[in-house]
Design brief:
There is one protein chain. By secondary structure, this protein is of the alpha+beta class. It has eight helices and four strands, in the order H-H-E-H-H-H-E-H-E-H-E-H. The protein has helices at 4-17, 33-43, 63-84, 87-93, 100-111, 159-180, 195-205, 236-239; strands at residues 55-60, 130-137, 184-188, 212-221. The relative contact order is 0.19.
């Protein structure tokens, strides 16, 4: 008889492997608040140092605000890939796309900014109907929980680093939950990589920056097209060392089931 725990483990592993970045959505198909609740609730089960939970989520419902956040993503993408990054570097980064027409199309999406049009949430570009903005507490050590408030941090520790780590796990939980619920999602940060954009989005959404800082967005919606393939992943034996950097792990695959 199959071990139930083993079966559940395989389901979870397949869910993780089946998660893909979706950038084309059924814009006019709403996502229920019941599903959003489950997604955000799953995010809240992410771990954080001392269970401080240094995160907040802004659900952007105002179309004008979502459009502006998307415009910033498009503008920064054009600046980064259309002006600053050399063409040969873009080609090098995308060499995993073996089909030349697909690679050229992806490069065109980058240098024109169309790769991030979906963030605007507009039907013309199959935009995402839902946009979540993740905000983390930049000075959270010793401040988030009432029992710890006022104790301060520890010399040499980066409280922002802890917040970013926790926030990243929060958003990954949300993404996996969305996938499990039959939705598509995609994380983006290009519109929050420049301080000017962080400040503008903070003002746009009323975020008390710099104490609280927006770091990432998660677009959510029903995929317009199925996506069954993604970029190739390096196998564990290529990315894992034993005891010393460069000493590759040679797992005993025969014993694995």
């Amino acid at each position: 008889m199959e071990n139930p725990d083993s079966s559940n483990g395989e389901i979870m592993l397949n869910l993780i492997k089946g998660r893909h970045a979706i950038r084309d959505y059924e814009t006019n198909r709403p996502v229920s608040e019941a599903l959003l609740y489950k997604i955000i609730e799953a995010g809240g089960y992410a771990p954080s140092a001392e269970n401080q939970q240094p995160w907040r989520v802004i659900l952007v419902k105002d179309q004008a605000k979502q459009r502006r956040i998307g415009e910033l993503a498009v503008e920064r993408t054009i600046e980064l890939f259309g002006r600053i990054t050399p063409r040969q570097e873009i080609e090098r980064r995308l060499n995993y796309v073996r089909a030349l027409p697909s690679r050229e199309r992806t490069i065109d999406w980058l240098i024109t900014g169309r790769r991030f049009e979906y963030i605007k949430g507009e039907p013309e570009t199959d935009g995402a109907p839902i946009l979540l903005v993740l905000v983390v507490e930049a000075t959270h050590v010793g401040n988030s929980q009432p029992t710890l408030r006022g104790t301060g941090g520890v010399y040499g520790w980066s409280s922002l680093r802890h917040s970013i780590i926790a926030g990243s796990m929060f958003l990954q939980n949300c993404w996996l939950a969305a996938t499990a619920l039959g939705l598509g999602a995609c994380v983006s940060s290009v519109q929050l990589d420049h301080y000017d954009d962080v400040r503008e989005i903070s003002e746009l959404l009323g975020i008390p920056h710099p104490h609280w800082t927006p770091i990432m967005c998660l677009a959510i919606g029903y995929p317009k097209f199925p996506r069954v393939r993604g970029p190739p992943r390096q196998p564990p034996e290529e990315i894992t060392y034993v005891d010393t950097w460069g000493k590759n792990w040679q797992p005993q695959k025969k014993s694995m089931k």
